[in-house]
Write a structure and sequence with these properties.
Elements: H1 10-44, E1 51-52, E2 56-57, H2 58-80, H3 82-104, H4 117-134, H5 149-152, H6 155-162, H7 165-217, H8 225-244, H9 246-269, H10 273-286, H11 289-298
Helix pairs in contact: 1-2, 1-3, 1-8, 3-4, 3-6, 7-8, 7-9, 9-10, 9-11
């Protein structure tokens, strides 16, 4: 049996789509502010100010517009709270996905001996989403009553839950554990490339600024503007790299990938049906966004 994201409830897809959209907005706002700051500095340092009509300097006016654009972008970002909504919807989507997998493959607490797995699933899911609503998550279901089990438990989830242990195990290992392990591997490789790129950019810009500073110290040049512009560009690169958290995510994603590899080996060799529910629960804990954030904070 194959179990994919398409088999998850509609609530997951709506939270996932919102998270992606808000992430795009947050990244766009931050990128715009950094570009406008660097552009404003470059225009302010333009030789002669591009004088028009004797007293009006076009470069100064464009520089002022760029800085005004930074303020406007910051105000817009604070109003729509894209970053917080991105994180809240991502947490909601991953929480729903994790609960669905635990239910479908008999992960704790929804093991085969549980008397009312459907009712417990719905209750726990609504309780978890209720906690997210308390901190600002907007439930896409609006003011409608809490969804019934038929809306949160898809036919594919029921079918997988009814399968024998061997099928549930194979499906979970292939479509959840290995998929997540590959995802973390790809993210780690992507973060390594991004870190190398931005580190190289900062190093080159800083080295050029250093050379200009040394030259000015020996009276080779009399203007500090080029070095200041290079410093502004380097600062923007550093800020962008920090916002994207490439470096700490390398360590966090690598650790999660190692944990999943160990869990994969255990599931294939020593974990039987008697320990299956606890193993699934532990795997879902490892892939949770909260666990990744904890690793990021403690592996800096």
């Amino acid at each position: 049996m194959v179990f994919r994201n398409a088999d998850l409830p509609e609530l997951f897809h709506r939270a996932d789509e919102t998270a992606i959209a808000r992430q795009r907005d947050a990244v766009r706002d931050t990128r715009a502010q950094l570009w406008l700051l660097v552009l404003g500095a470059c225009l302010a340092a333009a030789p002669g100010g591009w004088a028009v009509g004797g007293s009006f300097h076009l470069a100064g006016a464009l520089s002022a517009l760029a800085y005004a654009g930074v303020l406007l972008a910051a105000y817009r970002a604070s109003r729509r709270r894209a970053t917080s909504q991105w994180q809240l919807n991502r947490s909601a989507a991953e929480f729903i996905k994790s609960m669905c997998w635990r239910y479908a493959v008999h992960g704790a607490p929804f093991d085969a001996g549980f008397p009312d797995a459907d009712g417990e699933f719905t209750t726990r899911l609504e309780e978890g989403l209720g906690e997210l609503r308390k901190v600002g998550w907007t439930d896409p279901r609006g003011t409608a009553p809490a969804g019934a089990a038929s809306e949160l438990i898809t036919p594919a989830m029921r079918r997988l839950r009814e399968k024998p242990f061997r099928v549930r195990k194979e499906t979970y290992v292939r479509d959840r554990l290995i998929e997540q392990r590959n995802w973390y591997h790809r993210k780690t490789a992507l973060s390594r490339r991004a870190t190398a790129l931005w580190s190289a950019s900062v190093s080159v810009l800083t080295a050029l600024a250093l050379l200009l500073g040394v030259a000015r110290a020996f009276s080779v040049g009399d203007s500090a503007v080029p070095a200041a512009l290079l410093s502004a560009a380097a600062a923007a690169c550093v800020a962008w790299s920090e916002i994207r958290r490439h470096q700490p995510l390398i360590a966090a994603h690598s650790l999660v990938e190692e944990d999943l590899a160990a869990m994969h080996t255990a599931m294939e060799t020593v974990i039987g049906e008697d320990r299956w529910a606890a193993a699934v629960y532990e795997t879902e804990r490892v892939v949770s966004p909260q666990h990744t954030d904890w690793l990021v904070q403690h592996r800096r």
